[in-house]
Amino acid sequence: MSTAASIASTIPAANVEATAVNTIGWLSASDTTIVVPVYQRQYRWDIGGCEQLLSDVRAVSAADASDTHFIGSILSAASTSDADEGAHLVLIDGQQRITTLMLLVAALHHTLRDDDPTLAAELERVLVRADDPTRTKLRPHRAWADVFESVVLDRRAASDDLRESRFDDNYAFFRSQIRPGEAASIWRGLTKLEHVSITLGAAANAQQTFESLNSTGEPLRDHELIHNYVLMGLSHAEQSEIENDYWLPIEDATGEQIGAFWRHYLVMLTGREVAVAGERGVYDAFRHEFPRLDVDTLRQRAAQWREFAQIYGVLLDPAQAPDTEIARQLGYLNTFGRGVYPLVMRLYRSHAHGELGIDELLSSLEQLQSLLLRRKIVGISTDRLVARLCRAADRGTNDLVHAIARITPSDERTRVGLKYGDLPHAHYVLGRLAGTNGGDALDIEHVVPLAPSDEWSPDGIRRWAELTDDEQNSFRALAQTLGNLTLLEQPLAERAIDASFPAKRAAYAASDVVLTTEIASADAWSTAAIAARTEHLTDVFVRVWERPAVVSIDDDDLTPILDAKRRRGWPRGWQREFDYVEFRGEHWEVKDIRYLFNRVFKRLWTESDASRQAVIDFSARRGGPLYPEMAWNGQWDQIADGQYLYMGWDSKYMLAAVQGVLDEAGWASEVFLKYSYIGDAMR
Length: 683
Known about the structure:
There is one protein chain. This protein is of the alpha+beta class. The strands form 4 sheets. Strands 1-6-3-4-2-5 form a 6-stranded mixed beta sheet, with helices on both faces. The protein has a 4-stranded antiparallel beta sheet with strand order 9-15-10-11. β10 (578-583) and β11 (586-588) form a beta hairpin. The longest helix is centred in the middle third of the chain and has 22 residues, at 295-316. The two termini are 57 Å apart. The relative contact order is 0.07.
């Protein structure tokens, strides 16, 4: 051992003590009393975080006896300065986790205290102080300590029935999720939680230590978290096998787009949007879809991931496609970005496995181009479309065609957009209209320049400066529309720049692009000529970018309920999130998710025996929101004798419940939301 190592091993740190501990054992110790200091932020965990914690507890409970679950580090400092609290630990980092853990333990305690006094006593040691059973071991900020204590100790006053707090909501969630007979299993999982307890001495700089724990280096990205999650728990030999045979080929195929690949893959797999901003949405979705896998199952899954990654590589670089026409169509589709990759991955794999003919694949790729281009032309967003199309594709080719047709703007709306609006993706559109495979090798030519000089002339007689203001404004308004644009070879384009129309005609006549030579036959250029050319090219346009020949309504940007935006908490404006709801052909004046939640569950309960059973089955599997009794304090609505709907969830959970129960009943495809301006702008 070196001298430096010897000194390091014999001299303890002066101001920091770090120890790996069993979390429940640490909380149960008689000398553990924790105070949250005044400067700490309020408790913020939402039901999504609680759901993940409970999932982790259940997973480690079901794992091998030697398995544990690490919840991170808890940073505290010893203090005896508060006579009211006595000797205690000041919680510097870890408040959110410890508070949520206490709420879970409290829900478990209140569920089984009458049936299992022995286990209840174990739980009580976690919750209350040994020297005063009327006080909780965790003492939040004084402003909300009484609320927390009343929840954990189950001593709510009658006047508190309608009180709302994160403590109440999350406690209610845990109560709703603990199924009969599951208490012992959850307790087993809780006892397998571990953390690193970091205790600071009197001379330590608490703020500096906190910043070092939370701000060192870059946070792991979603695909890095997935990588660690997949390999964790395997032997070294198994890790090497999975890394070399599966993970490295996935990285090679997707390159810098590996993060996007995982998100698109999960959208394809689940038929649901995957959140990315402000959350570890991709990683969390992956963990939900792939709980801990034994190595044989992992090999099977990893082989599928590798196959889809290789397909993703083809989408990124269509030249890799073995069929030239597929490569061309994939190249066209890339004009619009990668938003529909989840669906195209699925279609391409079906074709590769012989489940989808080449004509069907090419038809679908053409339909997707029509969908994206037409929506761009009429000014409708293409966000959040692909998940619904993936769901339709799961039901079959006909359902996919119907789904695309429903959200593809009609010929009439497209004609109006082309007549008056700027042409999007001009190289692509004009190239395909001209038969030049996208037109990228040619320059875009504006017959009327975007900024004509005073000497520019539309007919060789009148100068631009001599035109009336109305004439100039009309030309400017149409300058980037379909009728005023064409393609031109670069040498000819250089001759035509800023030239008056009579001079441009010679350059146009010399072009090999038929779309351009046609213009050379015009004696002059006018707004009427632009309109006539737009009408002619639009007739060609609607044949090249056809809407599927299926009788279907143009849905005016309605959002299917399964694609609704899940919002955390209750963001400002939630009471006016929707303009209306289309419910199975009915028009509902519903403005917010709380009212929709209540109305959907009541409707399903009264509609038919089958829909009522869907509510029962969904609630039994999910652990709510329908219960046979009001088992805890909070907001309830009785929807039938002995059936109570709990109304205390947050916005995100309520929407998830609406989506889930409608899916269970088979009604989800018939329910649509129209977002209000406020709903579109909410964050």
